[in-house]
Amino acid sequence: MPTWILWLSPVIVAPVLAVFWMSWAARPRGPVEAMQTVQQYDRFKAALRQPVPEPRRARNEGARSTR
């Protein structure tokens, strides 16, 4: 098999896979119950209200000196 086919195959295959994935991801979904949607939104809001944990250590701690 010529090497140019191996080099050009990702150029052809990647966009084709992207088109198939986008058509699958954008497919129409079935109806969702209102209560389920409200519960999911409440869980989302609760997750955003949680405090952000402190970092374990400062970024420059443990870094080697270049001098």
Features:
67 residues; 2 helices; flat; mainly alpha; 58% helix
Integer average pLDDT? 87
Helix count equals 2
Q: Compute the gyration radius: what is it?
A: 24 Å
- The unreliable regions are none
Structural class: mainly alpha
Give a structural overview:
The chain is mainly alpha-helical. It is built from two helices and no strands. It has helices spanning 3-25, 34-49. The longest helix has 23 residues, at 3-25. The chain is flat, with a radius of gyration of 24 Å. The relative contact order is 0.05. The model has no long low-confidence stretch (mean pLDDT 87).
Q: What would you say about this model in short?
A:
This protein is mostly helical and 67 residues long. 58% of the residues lie in helices and 0% in strands.
